[in-house]
Write a structure and sequence with these properties.
Number of domains: 2
Structural class: mainly beta
Helix content: under 10%
Oligomer: single chain
Shape: rod-shaped
Amino acid sequence: MAKQSFSVGQVLTAAQMTSLQQTAMLGGSTTAKTTSYTLVAADAGTVVSVNSTSATTITVNTGLFSAGDTVTIQNWGSGAVTITAGTATVNTSASLVLAQYEGGTLYFTSASASLFFKADGAAAASGDNWTLLNAGGTALSANPTTITGISAKNKIMVIVAGASGTSNADSSYIQFNGSGDYFYIGLAETWASTYAASNFSVENNMASSPGGIFYAKMSNTGGSTFGGAVTMTGCNASGVKAFQSVGGGNASGSTGQIHYVQQGVYTESASISSVSIKLSNGFATFDAGTVYVYTTA
């Protein structure tokens, strides 16, 4: 119930007692809003709920509430609700922005100052929702083969399948935004006719700038294919971006193909807008294969 004034000896009705109990439990009467709203004195002890698809504000002014008064604010709609200090002071250690199904309580320490205690947010999503950017995949042909149109995506996953080039023993690498420095470390296994410890090595590009993420090498003879995948995070923000990669070549009876498992960082600050699949031999071209680019917000 809204804040009341009681007199000595006054007998409360059952309805008043019930309303008082609800208010004490941060419930009570609800004032529904669909647009931005400025709190009034009558909101003390009540719940102000907002249900709007557009962004709205709840403004807090001075001289309306007394020390100890509370106002609970809820957001039912998809539009964000922002608690805004008008002439009063609103302090919080959390965010003053309420997403859908979030809420919190204003507690007034004086007529001109309040604290906002934000409740737990809405449940987190169950996982990333990946979307294939290039429907059906893009056939590998030119060197490089480039996919553009990437915009405001946090994570990017590039998958190369069934690829081959016109030059034997060629390596393939993935490059974001057409250039950049890529520092990474990982393990490399070179396929040989017999097992040897020397087949395994640490792939270290921490002190150089190879210009791309090498993820596979074809065999020394014909009939070799290769594939791999690179996942990068933070692609829609300025600054260093982390990635992981895995890939390798496949050729029955052949040797020389290399398999890689690596992780590292892309050091360029610009957000990602394109990805290219390249062969290290600039005169070679792709003669098979498909690249798939998945993104998530």
